[in-house]
Amino acid sequence: MIPFNKPFLTGKETQYIEDAVKRLKISGNGDYTKECHNFFEQQYGFKKCLLTTSCTDALEMCAILADIKPGDEVIIPSYTFVSTAIAFIRQGAKVVFADSYSDNPNIDASQIEALINSKTKAIVPVHYAGVACDMDAIMDIANRYDLLVIEDAAQAITSRYKGKYLGSIGHMAAFSFHETKNVIAGEGGLLAINDDRFVNRAEIIWEKGTNRAEFFRGEVNKYGWVDIGSSFLPSEIISAFLWAQLENIETIQSKRLQHWHYYNNQLKEWAETKGIKLMPTPLEETNNAHMYYIVCNSIEQRTSLIAHLKANSIYAVFHYLSLHASDYYKDKHDGRELENSDYFTNHLLRLPMFYELPVEEVVKCLKSF
Ligand SMILES: *Cc1c(COP(=O)(O)O)cnc(C)c1O
């Protein structure tokens, strides 16, 4: 059986968790958490990092920091995970959906400007499959209209755009360490802040609206309730697990990239004869091998390909259902057709991708379709 995803363990996870437990510092913001923060700040050029219990939580923190209020509008792609939307909806925002490019599920930057009005507060590009959105165009629009850019970089760890790490370009960014991502902690996330204006408040919101972090640094002589917030920080058990993964991030990424290139090289001819499109080959700097997807020529073809693989105990899965057409939002959406998002909803298929993947077997099975 070849699953779609299998979490990869480096072997040190339980050792570091045991260590955290033995130190009797099990709650959040201990040594492992700080190690992870330093790692991200130094490696990727994020100004301030805070681990969270999920990427969804990190996005919720972004929505609070962006001061999103009822009636505000936020522009997001329709082809994305629910979390990109609900983080802002919870603050009372209206999400305005933009379409994808025709050959790439990322937000079509050329459509964004027409969606902006006086209520617009932020743009949330999602780097689908870890491949960079058109960040120059997006930052240019944001600067001209004085909007915030919040990168949903859930899938984008180690990936770059014009030499800059994804997550370091917008005002803030959110990453995920869910077990389906490249680097994992079971459930876990990271808020990266690049704009100094948000750093202090982020620490406060992270720890239940208190100035506890400043207190422990000796910057204030008592700590108390100063703002809204929640318990967004993960326990040391999660940070210890994540640290074992971060120590091995290069090994993890190079193995995934090997699989990615094997798919891409081996499937070209086959795809052509079947009328299937392979995912567009990203520039090397923006390929983190989070995913390998193909785009089938019809929903029927995709259904039979999934069945063929499944009959051989190989599990491939489609991905998002356009959010503008979801049960929750279809009546709230403004009625615009988003045909590229719907196209990927119906045609995109993700192939198995994980560290220990026997990629040759998957390719062989695809070629027998
Ligand atoms: C995985 C994912 C999320 C959610 O991450 P969690 O850590 O599970 O909250 C959000 N957005 C995108 C694009 C994702 O792929």
UniProtKB/TrEMBL annotation:
Record-stated family: Belongs to the DegT/DnrJ/EryC1 family.
Alphabetic keyword roster: Pyridoxal phosphate
SUPFAM superfamilies per record: PLP-dependent transferases
Chain positions with N6-(pyridoxal phosphate)lysine modification: K181
GO biological process, one term: polysaccharide biosynthetic process
InterPro entries named in the record: DegT/StrS_aminotransferase, PyrdxlP-dep_Trfase, PyrdxlP-dep_Trfase_major, WecE-like
Enzyme active site: K181
Entry's transmembrane regions: none
Name recorded for this polypeptide: dTDP-4-amino-4,6-dideoxygalactose transaminase
Domain of life: Bacteria
GO molecular function: dTDP-4-amino-4,6-dideoxygalactose transaminase activity; pyridoxal phosphate binding
PANTHER family named in the record: DTDP-4-AMINO-4,6-DIDEOXYGALACTOSE TRANSAMINASE (PTHR30244:SF34), TRANSAMINASE (PTHR30244)
Cross-referenced CDD domains: AHBA_syn
